[in-house]
Every structure is written in C-alpha cells, then in structure tokens.
Amino acid sequence: MNQPRRLDVLSAIVEDYVHSREPVGSKALVDRHRLGVSSATVRNDMAALEEAGMIMAPHASAGRIPTDKGYRAFVDQIASVKPLSVAERRAISSFLDSSDDVDQMMEKTVRLLSQLTRQVALVQYPTRTGARVRHLELVTMAPKFVLVVMITTRGGVGQRVVEVPEDLTEETLKTMRAQFLDAILDQPVGELEEALVPAVTRCEPMHQKSAAILAGMVTILGRNEQEERLLMAGTSYLAESTDDFNRNIAPILDVLEEQVVMLRLLSEIDDDARGVSVRIGRENAESPLSDASVVATGYGPQLASKLGVVGPTRMDYPGTMSAVRAVARYLSRILHE
Questions:
Q1: Do residues 274 and 296 touch, judged by C-beta distance below 8 A?
Q2: CB 332 within 8 Å of CB 93
Q3: Average pLDDT for residues 68-92, to the nearest whole number?
Q4: For the chain, the helix, strand and coil percentages under 3-state DSSP, each to the nearest 5
Q5: What pLDDT score was predicted for residue 129?
Q6: DSSP state of 188
Q7: Which one, out of 144, 157, 276, 307, has a CA that is 20 to 30 A from the CA of 168?
Q8: Between these two residues, 336 and 187, which has the higher pLDDT value?
Q9: For residues 110 and 230, what is the distance between their CA atoms, to the nearest angstrom?
Q10: Which residues are bridge partners to 208 per DSSP?
Q11: How far apart are CA 226 and CA 190, in angstroms?
C-alpha cells in the first residue's frame, strides 16, 4: 500500500476495532483520530481499502472491520517493537529472577506471558543442545528404594525413586555414585547409556543388577532432559473472545493441546528484523488456527527454543509483540547466567 494516508486510515480502523470490537465508520474515525481530512475523503479511502481486501463490512449498513490482509499490512508497517515501560520490565525481571529451578521458571514464564497479553501463552522448554551432567546423587529412601537425582549444566533437575532387588548400604551407594559420576560428569545428557556400561561392570558382582537398574534410571533422566516439552496457560482468555472466532473454539483448544502440532508450528517460525514473528489467520498452516494469530519469538542459546501467544486476529499486536519479545529476552538472560 503506497499511500501513507490510507495506511493511517487502516491503522485507525485496526486500533478502534481492537479496542471496541465494533465495526468502525468514517465519522468515528474523523472524530477520534487526527487524520486531517474530511469524512468524505475518509470514506473514499475506506472504499479503496475495501476494494484492496484490507477491510470488509460484516453486514449491510455497518462500519468496517479489518481482514487478515489488513491486519498483515498494519503489522508490517510497525517499524520497530515498542519497548515496555521501566515498571513493566522491572516487574518481569523480579518475577522471573525469583525462580528456583527451570521447571518453576517455565511455569512462571507461561503464566506471566498470558497475564501480560491476555492471550493463550505457550513456552517450549529450553532446547537441551549442549546440556551436560553437572551432579549426581544416589540416596536411600527406604529399604530397596533409592532416590536418583541428576543436575545438568543447563539447570535441569531430574529425580526419580527406583526400586532395586536388594538393600544397599550407604557405603555401597557412595561407591556406585562415585563410579557413575566419574563416568558421566560433563558428558552430554543424551549419551549416558554407553558411558555407564563400564561403571556398572566395575561394581561388585553381587550389586551389578542393582547398579544396572540405577544406571538405566540415570539414562532415562538424561533422555527426559532432551525431550521437547510445551507449557500452556491462559486458555480461559479464549472463552472471553468467542465472538472473535467464526467457528467454535473447541477445535482451537484441541490443536493447542496437541503438543507435537504446536511444537512443529513454533519451530517453523523465524524472527523478523524486529525480533519477533507474527502469523495472522490463514497464514497459519493448521486450519483450526485460521481464525487465530500467533505471535512468537526464540529465546535461549541460538534462539533455538520458542515462546509466544495464540489469540484472535483482533489482537493488540504492538503490545503483544512487545511483551513476547521482552519476556523472551529476560528468559534468555536468566538461562545464560
């Protein structure tokens, strides 16, 4: 769209419709926005925008509402993402800095992002590329039950109580732990199985069966560390926006719960020059999301993990883009530290 004034009119229509959820007429635009032209001129601009497929009339004699194409033109003209206020940045930093471990930090992040945007928030667990074993503990919990705890260099903590076929003394467990840790310390978490085989064979023959079971659990904890996981919060906000969707929101909820589908969608999203990506309506490959918009970005090492929000196309795009990018940056900083 080459005419700046028509882009101003489109932006005004988007802003008013997002705020009011009511179709916007030319008189309301002139009254509420300093467009510097008459209602007749605005009507001509609106007719041109409608012909270009940027806006549409939801029914006869109504004002106009943006289409997916109109939202796209509006988002593309946002030159840069507006930074959050000092108070907002301080609140995000304080909230996320108080997390004790990765699990708590992920849960806080997804809740915070949902509250900031009033949309459904999605946060992919940090990609564990490069995660290595930092610490291992074997602790007797009860006769024949041992707690296995593994901590990685990325801050992941995995633990599981394991039943073994015999009572193991504290001295035996201490020896096993030392042998296991010697074999896997600083090893990639996805390559523990082979590293633990010689550690098991070094154990006393009478304890090798128990050692093999415990080694298997350490391997499983390593695999769990590698799994792709997605946390979600704020689905109740969809219920507040049912009028914004052409269809029932149930299919959208079904897609959101399909982690494989959402992980694939997020993995296909690349940040633009503003550090965030926006997919609007039919731009989303999954048909149930054709009524929705996705705003997402990468975070963490190489920005390999993703976070974002899903909501109706009638969305506060500038505010949502700012919140998504800000939360991602703070999360990256914390993980780096």
A1: no
A2: no
A3: 86
A4: 55, 20, 30
A5: 53
A6: B
A7: 157
A8: 187
A9: 10
A10: none
A11: 7
Q: Which residue has the tokens 């840790």?
A: 181
> Which tokens sit at 110?
């997804």
pLDDT per position as a tens digit, 94-146: 877 776 677 788 899 999 999 999 999 999 987 655 678 999 999 999 999 99
What pLDDT shows up at residue 127? 65
| In the predicted structure, residue 220 carries a pLDDT above the cut 90 | no
* Per-residue confidence (pLDDT) for residue 261, from 0 to 100: 83
- What confidence score (pLDDT) does residue 240 get? 84
CA–CA distance, 123 with 108 (Å, rounded to integer): 10
Pair of tokens at residue 86: 């000092």
User: Residue 160 contacts by C-beta under 8 Å, 6 or more apart in sequence?
Assistant: 147, 148, 217, 220, 221
In this structure, what token pair is assigned to residue 69?
A: 């194409």
CA distance 174 to 137: 9
Query: Which residues 6+ apart lie within 8 Å of 211 measured at CB?
Result: 176, 199, 200, 203
Residue 248 has pLDDT above 80, yes or no: no
Chain-centroid distance of CA 67 in Å reads 26
pLDDT of 31? 86
**Lookup result for tokens 């201490």:** 174
Per DSSP, the three-state class of 267 is: helix
Quote the pTM value.
0.72
Looking only at Cα atoms, what is the longest distance across the chain? Answer: 93
Query: Rounded to an integer, what distance in angstroms lies between the CA atom of residue 243 and that of residue 249?
Result: 10
Rounded CA gap, 12 and 6, in Å? 10
- Determine the Cα angle at 16 with ends 13 and 17, to 5°: 80
Amino acid at position 278, single letter: V
Average pLDDT over residues 64-69: 94
What the block records as the tokens of 3 is 């005419």
Residue 206 has pLDDT above 80, yes or no: yes
Residue position matching structure tokens 């076929």: 165
Please give the domain boundaries of the chain with CATH numbers for all domains.
4-76 (1.10.10.10), 86-127+228-336 (3.30.450.40), 133-226 (3.30.390.60)
